[in-house]
Amino acid sequence: MPNLGSQDARRRTIAWSGAIVLTVALVAVSVLWLGGTPPPSSIVLATGQVGGVYDGFGREYQKRLAAQGLKVELVNTAGSVDNFRRIIAGKADVAFAQSGTYQVVPDPEHKVSGLAAIYYEPLWIFTRRGIRIEDKVSYRDGSVAVGPKGSGTEAVAKAIIAEQGYDIDSPAIVNLTSVEARRQLMDGTIDVAFFVTSYRDPGIIELMRRKDLRLTSFRREAAYTRKFHGLTPVRVPEGLLDLRDNIPSENVTLLSPSAMLVAREDINPRVIELILKVAQAVHSPGSLIDPPLKFPSLQGMDVPVNEAAETYLTSGESFLSRNLPYHALRWVLLAKLLILPLVAVWVPLLRVAPMIAQWRKTRWLKRYYARLRGVEDKLATARWPNELREGINDLEALRAEVQVVSRKLPPQQQQDVYHWRLHVSLILNEAVERLARMETAPAR
C-alpha cells in the first residue's frame, strides 16, 4: 500500500472541507434562526420636504442615533406616500409617514411594518375669507392646493374632498409644496390649501395671523373620524398657540392623522429598539396638543405593527439593549452568530477526533497484522524449502512495504510500527532457522 499517505492526505482534506462547509451552513442557519443578521452600522431614513417638520425631526433623530453608534443617512422626499414607496422598493430602511396614507400604496408582499405613532399631525385647511370648505361651491381652476404629489397631505385631502362629493380629478385641484401653497394663498392666487403638519410649523402660525384667511374648524368631527379611521379629533383652545396675540382667535376642532415611524418588515430588531428609545426621548414629554407620555404609541397606527416594536412598547427593551451600548451590542450579536456555530461544529469535532485517530490506528494495525498472520500461516504449512523461501520473500516484501509507509505516518504511530517490525523479525528468524534445518537435513 505505497499510496496510503496520499490517501490519508485526501481524507484529511475531505474532513477539513466538510467541517468548513458544515460551519458555513450552521452560520447561515444561525443568521436565519437566531435573530437575523447582526445590527447594521447605518440606516437610511426617509423624511419629507426640505424645511418641513419631518425634515427637522429627521435631523434630531440623526444626531441622537449617531451618539448611540448608529449612522443615519437622511433622504428628503415628497412625503408619506413617497416614503412608503421607497421602503417597498428597498430605497429606505425607516421613514416618517402619516396615518391614513398606507392604504393608497400597493404593498402585496407586506414589506412595510409600523413601529409607532409619535405625535398628532393635524390637518390644517386654510381658505380665503368668505369660503367654507364644507359648502357646495365651484372652485376656479388651480385654486385648491392639496399638497405635493405622493404626499400624505394629498392622500387625506383628496379623501375628504371626495367624501364631500367633489371630483378629485377636477382642474381646480393642484399639487403644490407647502411653501408654494402658503405663498400663493397669501397673495390670492389660490383659495384653499391643505396642510398636514405639526403646530410647530412656523408657516402655520404665519397663516393664522392673516386676517384675510380662515382656518377651517370641523363641526362634524365624529362623522369624519368614523369614516376615516386614521383621523383623530384634536381641539385647539383659543389662544393656545400664542396667548399674547390670541392665536387661534376662537376654539378650533381639527382632524388629525398621527405621524408614524414605519420601516422595512425585515429590519433588525435591535435597530427598532434603538429608534424607539430615541422616539421616547423626543416625543414622550408631549406638546401643546400631544398629552405627556402618550407617544410613542401603538394607538393611531393603521400599518401592520412590527413584532419587535410591539414587544418593545408593551414589555420594554431586551436585556442586551438595556445593558450594552449599540456599538458593543453589534459585536456581541455578531459574535453570537459566529461563535455558536463554531462551538457546535468544532467542540464535538475536537472531542471525536482522538477517537477517530485511535480507530484509524487500530484499523491500520489490524490490517497489517492480518497480512502478517497470513504469511506466518504460509510459512508454518511449508513442507519444502522452495515453499519456505517463497514465504520468506513475501515476508521481506511486506516488511519493505511497511518501512516505506512508516515514513509517512505521524510520530505517535511509529511505536506501533516498531512493535510490528519486531514481530516480523521474530517470524523471519524462525523461518530462516527452519529453512537452514531443511537444507542441512539428510535426504531420505
Structural summary, described in words:
With 444 residues, the protein is of the alpha/beta class. The chain has helices at 4-33, 53-68, 80-88, 152-163, 178-186, 202-208, 221-227, 269-283, 307-315, 319-323, 326-380, 385-406, 414-440, and strands at residues 42-46, 71-75, 94-98, 112-120, 123-128, 144-145, 173-174, 192-196, 213-215, 232-236, 252-256, 258-264. Helix 4 (152-163) links the parallel strand 6 (144-145) and strand 7 (173-174).
What is the element layout, followed by pairings?
Blueprint: H1 4-33, E1 42-46, H2 53-68, E2 71-75, H3 80-88, E3 94-98, E4 112-120, E5 123-128, E6 144-145, H4 152-163, E7 173-174, H5 178-186, E8 192-196, H6 202-208, E9 213-215, H7 221-227, E10 232-236, E11 252-256, E12 258-264, H8 269-283, H9 307-315, H10 319-323, H11 326-380, H12 385-406, H13 414-440
Task: Provide key terms for this protein.
5-stranded mixed beta sheet, single chain, rod-shaped, alpha/beta
Strand content: 5-15%
Task: Choose one word for the global shape.
Answer: rod-shaped
User: Which parts are unreliable, with pLDDT below 50 for 5 consecutive residues or more?
Assistant: 1-5
Share in helix: 40-55%
pLDDT averaged residue by residue: 83
Largest sheet: 5 strands, mixed
Order of helices and strands: HEHEHEEEEHEHEHEHEEEHHHHHH
Based on secondary structure, the structural category is: alpha/beta
Please state the CA-atom Rg, rounded to the nearest Å: 41 Å
Number of contiguous helices:
13
Q: What separation lies between the terminal Cα atoms?
A: 43 Å
- Order of strands side by side in the largest beta sheet? 2-1-3-12-4
Annotation, overall tally of beta strands: 12
